[in-house]
Amino acid sequence: MEGTTLTEYPEYSSTEELVKAVLENDQQEFLGQPYKVTMEPFAEKIGAVSTQLHCRVEATSGPTKGQTKLLFVKEVSYDNSYFQGMQLVEKEIAMYLHVIPQMINFVKKQGKMSLAGTLANLFPKFLGYGRVASNYFLVLEDFTTREDDFTVIHLRDSSHTNATVHVALRRLAQYHGALYALTSQMPEFSKQFPILQKNEMWVESFHMFAELASPGTLKWIGFLHSTYCNNNNALAEFLKTRISLTDNQVRDLGELIESLTPHLSIDGATETLKKTNTRASASVLCNIPIHGDAHQLNTACSSNDVIFFDLQMCWFFDGLFDLHTYLPTSTTPKQRADNLPDFLETYYTTLSETCTQLGMSGSPYTDMDHFMECYKKFLPWQVLFGLYALSFIGYSDAQREILIELENGMGSADREDVVMDAELLDKLDSSTWRVSQHLMDFFMDMREQGLCEELENL
Fold first, then answer.
1. How would you class 274 by CB atoms within 10 Å of its CB: exposed for 0-12, middle for 13-18, buried for 19 or more?
2. CA distance 152 to 69
3. Edge-to-edge, what's the strand order for the sheet holding 50-59?
């Protein structure tokens, strides 16, 4: 992969031709000719560059006529040279063709066949790739056809259950532990993948999430806070029927928002995340090829297992980054308030057990206290990923227009247009209030985890 460039991708005249070539190269999946190929969206387009597609391949003649195969196709289009320079497709292919197979072979050589099987099932089977016109395609197993009935739960529908969170954290810990043992015992492994060594990628691509840290978001938070605090205001009374926080919580929230505001502007957030990475990089104990984007929409769940996919943001960094991606995007603030110590205990214990299984003296962390100390150094990242998650839960285009109209008049909580504001707010459906409640709970959760102290330490 060291010399891979986009021009080296196999080129095809159509998606159908690409899929056919992929199936012919994977003899076990070969169905016969000719094919009928149909595509349909797997989920809405997420982010700036990729679309997930379901692909149904059906043999239309010959001995396999009528036989079908479902595939999972990822289409990537680079709208500008910036995304092309990030080499997202190359990174994902490096993971599927090299990193994951070498990790599994390493585990097998240690005689841990059960663990090797678990790790092999943690990602979809990779079948091939190619280019059609200016777009790039990765073809993978359709994991929704596995016997365990895997599904992707959309953020707006539900968070992951506590049971699923524990499973996901065990799987991440096994993945991280196996790679930690591999990189520790075979130092040359890391040198194979210079393409994965660039560790400022999320910071540099922060502009993709500009709207999540925009002044408009902060104005809405400030509006809710200042109005909610004014008990004599009719609008405040209206809001109290929609959002449940105590007066002390609201006061604490106001102080927290005031302290966070410099870090949530675009420039401020970028600088904060750079400092966070610099500080974390100086003490990284587990420098491995992490998933890099392990949020809820990149996780498929069954009743007793999970699959992680979409590896385009992978890079060499501390596995703790994956925890700070997964937890704020897959659990609610209340879940974390009630269960975070147990969640982290599950990860730490499994990581230690996996490392020991594979010949290490234990995990990279000396004990749970040391693990927590390292975990907290990444807390500023949870602000980005937490807002990222909340943005998918609620606001429709119509609701955004109402919020914009409200934001345009936000000066103080006791202004005269209370009746108009209440009428506008009444047009918002329940999902907006759910987001607003989550938003406030999220900032309170960050305070309880010690975010302010970590920001002061940058």
1. middle
2. 20
3. 11-12, 126-132, 135-141, 68-77, 50-59, 35-41
- The helix (run of H) or strand (run of E) holding residue 229 is helix 215-229
Please count the residues of the chain. Answer: 458
The CA–CA distances, whole Å, from 418 to 33, 55, 70, 243 equal 68, 52, 55, 18
Categorize the per-residue pLDDT at 277 as very low, low, confident or very high, splitting at 50, 70 and 90.
confident
At 444 the pLDDT is 80
Give CA separation, 222 vs 22, 218, 254, 426, 439, in Å. 53, 6, 8, 19, 11
CB-side neighbour CA atoms (13 Å) of 86 = 24
Strand 11-12 relative to strand 126-132, pairing: parallel
The Cα 454–Cα 458 span in angstroms is 7
Phi, psi dihedrals of residue 230, rounded to the nearest 5°: -90, 95
Q: Which residues pair with residue 59 across a beta bridge?
A: 35
Instruction: Give the number of other Cβ atoms within 10 Å of residue 27's Cβ.
Output: 7
pLDDT digits (tens, 9 = 90+) for 79-92: 656 667 778 888 99
Beta bridge mates, 40: 54
- Rounded CA Rg of the chain: 24
Q: In 10 A of CB 262, how many CB atoms?
A: 13
What's the whole-model pTM score? Answer: 0.86
Distance CA 102, CA 91 (A): 15
Pick from 436, 309, 307, 454: nearest CA to 378:
454
Through-space distance between the first and last CA atoms of the chain, rounded to whole angstroms: 35
- The answer to whether residues 158 and 151 touch, using CB atoms and an 8 Å cutoff, is no
Measured in degrees and rounded to the nearest 5, phi and psi for residue 169 equal: -70, -35
Cis preceding-peptide flag for 101 (omega within 30 of 0) = no
d(CA 262, CA 289): 32
Question: What is the rounded CA–CA span in Å between residue 315 and residue 455?
Answer: 24
